[in-house]
Design a protein that fits this description.
globular
């Protein structure tokens, strides 16, 4: 993988980790403590300066009570992974709200296709 692609991947994974941490209402300090690493290490990963290993991704997933796939799926450029991510978002909504979101998504896609 090229250095540019690696940096881009690190940035995407870092944002996904930061987003999960915030959703779990945890500080970087709390995550660092649970992982047994320094706050700066968590910060570097979240900023995309460092790309976590698969083992470290598993540790983050344990802290956030999610799967490694949850941390990686939303960063994928594959449409099937993106669809899985959207499915996860939609599953949190009641039926009428899912219909509304799908309607908005359809209109947005139609607009962007022009």
């Amino acid at each position: 993988m090229s250095e540019a692609k690696t940096k881009h991947l690190a940035s995407l994974v870092g944002r996904a980790i930061a987003k999960r941490r915030v959703a779990c209402r945890l500080t970087q300090e709390q995550v660092a403590e649970q992982l047994g690493i320094g706050i700066e290490a968590v910060s570097r990963i979240e900023r995309g300066v460092a790309l976590p290993t698969v083992v470290r991704l598993g540790e983050f997933a344990d802290v956030f009570e999610c799967s490694i796939a949850d941390l990686v799926t939303e960063t994928s450029a594959r449409s099937t992974d993106q669809a899985t991510y959207i499915d996860g978002l939609l599953s949190k909504l009641v039926h009428d709200d899912r219909i509304m979101v799908l309607d908005i998504l359809e209109k947005l896609v139609n607009r962007l296709e022009r």
